[in-house]
Specification:
This protein is α/β, with parallel strands linked by helices and 321 residues long. It has 2 domains: 171 residues, HUPs (Rossmann fold), CATH 3.40.50; 128 residues, TPP-binding domain (Rossmann fold, 3-Layer(aba) Sandwich), CATH 3.40.50. 29% of the residues lie in helices and 25% in strands. The protein is built from 9 helices and 17 strands. The strands form 4 sheets. A 7-stranded parallel sheet has the order 7-11-6-1-4-5-12, sandwiched between helices. Strand 9 and strand 10 form a beta hairpin. It starts with a strand and ends with a helix.
């Protein structure tokens, strides 16, 4: 067994949470295969942080310290990982289903002439092969799929897999994969104002829909999110109305999220929206329409006017500190 590889994702010199989730999931898969976990780190100035990946089940780190890879590019990263995979021959390669992970996994699968299971919510080993569970038909059904080809590639839905610390440190090996000519380069990165938590990584999301009536009313959702330590999302109808940016959109044509708590305010619950947040651990629906589809998906339903409920809920949160 050549083992299980995890493609690490980092930002501003630190690994993202999805990397630790992917490493922990990879350790479970590797145990089932009788193999070890190797992390692939592409970037610059990350050597000190690489050994810490051993805390999450990684035995070895292949670190490419290359200034051309300091900032993510599809061309450069795909070429580098493909070059390493052709010589290292991993059995399984795991990514986080982030924007970067989904972009890179597909390109890598094409380069290696294999296939990829995307947005997986569970992984298991059966007969020496990786079997992945993923949603289909807009999340109405979950299917177990066997990835054909080698290596088997999978992307993991953020916030679904637990981060498990196993202790220890990883051996770091410096590598120099072929990168080739990078034709498209990032010249500037514009950070979200106010240091807002990315929806795909948020553990608490307060979302608003058509029932918010206007953009200014999202202030009451922002106040509640601030008290809960969460972030604000929106349905497609709210985004289409110009009340929130597309960056905030949750749903099939927006972002797929899996927070611990999802509070849907004035959202009817169209199937496209449910496909984006249906895997949330706890769902609270606040909607004065008792027949709104969102109530069939929610763990807790509040049939009332959100403009009465949300401010009152915010005040109660303030009392709790």
């Amino acid at each position: 067994m050549a083992g299980v590889w995890v493609i690490a994702e980092h930002r501003d010199g630190a690994f993202r949470k999805i990397t630790f989730e992917a490493a922990s999931a990879a350790k479970t898969v590797a145990d089932g295969l009788g193999a070890q976990v190797t992390a692939v780190v592409l970037g610059s100035g990350l050597e000190a942080a690489c050994a810490d990946l051993g805390k999450y089940g990684v035995s070895k780190v292949l670190y490419a310290d290359n200034a051309d890879l300091a900032v993510y590019s599809t061309e450069g990263y795909a070429a580098a990982v493909a070059d390493l995979a052709k010589s290292g021959a991993p059995d399984v390669i795991i990514f986080g289903a982030s924007m970067q992970g989904k972009d890179l996994a597909g390109r890598l699968a094409a380069k290696l002439d294999t296939s990829v299971a995307v947005d997986c919510t569970a992984l298991k080993v059966d007969g020496g092969k990786l079997v992945a569970t993923r949603p289909i038909y807009a999340g109405k059904i979950y299917a177990d799929v066997l990835v054909t080809g080698s290596p088997q590639i999978a992307t993991l839905r953020p916030n679904v897999f637990d981060v498990v610390e196993t202790g220890g440190s990883a051996a770091v090996e410096k590598v120099s994969p072929a990168v080739g000519a990078i034709k498209v380069k990032q010249v500037e990165a514009l950070a979200e104002e106010g240091g807002k938590i990315d929806l795909t990584e948020a553990t608490i999301i307060v979302s608003g829909g058509r029932g918010m009536k206007e953009a200014d009313n999202f202030k009451i959702l922002e106040a509640l999110a601030d008290q809960l330590g969460g972030t604000v999302g929106a349905s497609r109808s709210a985004v289409d109305a110009g009340w929130r940016s597309h960056h905030d959109q949750v749903g099939q044509t927006g972002k797929v999220v899996t927070p611990n708590l999802y509070i849907a305010c004035g959202i009817s619950g169209a199937i496209q929206h449910l496909a984006g947040m249906g895997s949330s651990k706890v769902i609270v629906a606040i909607n004065k329409d008792a027949d709104a589809p969102i109530h069939t998906k929610a763990d807790y339903c509040v049939v009332a006017d959100l403009f009465d409920v949300v401010p009152a809920l915010t005040e109660e949160c303030k009392k709790l500190g």
